[in-house]
Each structure stands twice: as structure tokens, then as C-alpha cells.
Amino acid sequence: MVFRTLLALGVVAALLPACGGGSDGGGDDPPPTPAATSTAPDGKAALGAAPTTKAPTPTAGSSGGTLRAGNPNGKAAVPAEARAVDTTKPNRVVGNGTAASCTGKAVATAVAAGGVVTFSCGPDPITITMTQTAKVKNSTKRVVLDGGGKVTLSGAGKRRILYMNTCDDAQGPPPGDCTNQDHPQLTVQNLTFASGSSIGADPDPEVTNGGGGGALYARGGRLKVINSRFVKNRCDSGGPDLGGAAIRVLDQNRDLPVYVVSSTFGGAAGQGGACSNGGALSSIGVSWVILNSLFSHNEAIGYGANEAANGTPGGGNGGAIYCDGNTFTLRVAGTLMERNHAREGGGAIFYVSNDRSGTLRIESSTLRRNPSDEFETIPGIFYRANGEAQITASKIT
């Protein structure tokens, strides 16, 4: 049975206007129809601080760049552990003050060495084309990559930009269970990730559990993203569960959430991500907290859904966000999602908790004009989980 109509299910609160104006604030879904670097000792990880209601300064510790990502009208409070890391005393600096000194190789070398990494590439904004994927070593305690609001890392449409995977022995053997490591802890802030591609990048599906993550792939450890932009990223165009044109995440430590704060995915026509599922974000069994962010013009371009219908590659779910698995949560607050598109279900969000234990919360957010070509349970959303979705002070049309 294909869901082609809007089902008024899963809403426990009235869909109220959001604050501000302008740019405000394998599942079981139904089957479809057919350079220079300087070094210093590494520091301690920044995740895990006590929560606070004080709003963060997204570019704290950066070099005062001009990047301002996310939803400018988002007013959601940000907990301390989701705030930007102070990078005024970096462990490593990419570049020696000139644009020519800031190379993809220097970025990859700094990421492999770990610690707090900043950039010194001259006074002007710069795009650094990655000639190899920057890979986090499993022995690293943390990596903080801060572009100072001026740096774009580009995959040139040829490669994934940043990779962390505690289940990949090529990055060093982790102690114990690779899926539940407290490190590495990866933070990216004040950066733009452009034209990353994981198409055909994962020959061993056991290592990456389905692939995806055109710009950034993270499995194990912890990840947070602050004041960053993701534009024109891609992953494979077909396949069930495969997803995340911008970011793919699996197996976070102790099932703690991924924080995405004041960040933009797409943002304008022609700038969005495209993937089989999850034109921006994708995960299996991972919790997310998404605050004061913007998702627009992202697409889920697969078809056949999950499980893939006969004669189809599968996919097409979650134009912006694809979440599948068992016990996990998704909280979206102070966020604008518009003009995302799913070829199958969930033009903005696809959320399926297979064991019905997960929950979805949408707070003080606006979701509008996110078409689902085949099925949805709330406009722009396909939701199947524990009870009804928790939607407060939000506008969903």
C-alpha cells in the first residue's frame, strides 16, 4: 500500500506559528509502487559539559571570519556541550599565512595528527581542494577543525572530505567494541563543506554499513557540527538505508546525540545535497539534536523505498533527514526546513523506529513546501515510532 495522501496522524500539539518572520524559525515503511603545520600537545575533549540555557557564540575561538550559517531567527537554547570549542590556542595550524600554503594535503596531515586545528591562509576567504580524504585516526582523543569562517573544504565532486570510523582497522584498531568508543571526539565549526562525494567510495559495506556521507562520515566516537555550511554534496543515488549527502553517522558513544547547531544544508536553489536517502543527514540508530539550523533544496533521489520494491534500487526517503533503526531520538528546534524533496516518503524528515521505541520532537520550527511524492503521515514527514510526534510552537505546512 502506498501512502499518497496526507494523514493527520502523529501530532499531539497544535501547529502554531513559529517565532520570527521571513526565514523563520532498513526501515519498515510502506512499500512503494514501483603546508605547514605547527604542533603542540593534544588537549582534553570538550563534549560532556553541563547544560545551560545561555545562547552560544557560534564562532567562539575562531579567527573572526564572516560565515554566519543556520537559521537567523532560531532562538532555541543551546546546551554547553553543544557550543563551539575555544580554538585560540591550537595544537596545529594549517598554512603559514598565505593561500598557497593551505593545501588539501596539509589538511589531511593535520587531521591525522589530531588536536585543535585552525587555518592561517591569508586575509581572504579560501577554497581548499582536497586531493585526499582527511581521515581521523582511531587513537586520537579529539579533532577540532575550525575554519574561522573563511575556509571552504571542497571534494571537487570526486571524494569524501572528512572520515572517522572506529570500525575501520585501516585507521588503527580500537580497544574493545568498535561501535561504542568514547573517542575520537570530532568537532567541525566555522567551515564550509562543498562538493563532497562518496559515490562508489565504499567497496567494503561491512566497514561503512551501507556507505553515504558525501562530505563527512562518522562512525563511533562523538560528532558535533557548529556554524558550518554544507553545499552541493552527493552520495550514491540508489539503495535502501544508504544516505547522507552531507553527513552520515553511525554508532555514537553510549548512544549520546550528535549536535548540529546554527548550520546550513543547501540554503539556496542548486546548493542542496542529493543522495538515495537523506539529502542532508542520514543515520541508523543514532540520536540527533538539531538547533537553529537551515535545511533547504536537499533531495532524496532513490526510488523503491525500504525494503526495495522489485526492480528498483531502493531509497528515496527523507529529502533532508533520514533516521532509521531502533531506540533513538530526533529533536529539531529553532530550525527552518523548506523546499526539500523526497521521491518516496518524508520530503523533510523520514523517521522510523523499527521497535517503536524512538521519539521525534519538533519545537519552535517551520517546515514548509517539503513535498513527499508517495507517502507521508504529517506534511513533509513520514513518522513511525513511539506514540505521536511531539510538535510544539511550530508551523508545518
TrEMBL record:
UniProt key word Signal: yes
Region: Disordered, residue numbers: 23-76
Composition-biased stretches (Low complexity): 35-61
Range of residues in the leader sequence: 1-20
SUPFAM superfamilies attached to this UniProt entry: Pectin lyase-like (SSF51126)
Keywords: Signal
Protein name, UniProt field: Right handed beta helix domain-containing protein
Organism: Phytohabitans aurantiacus
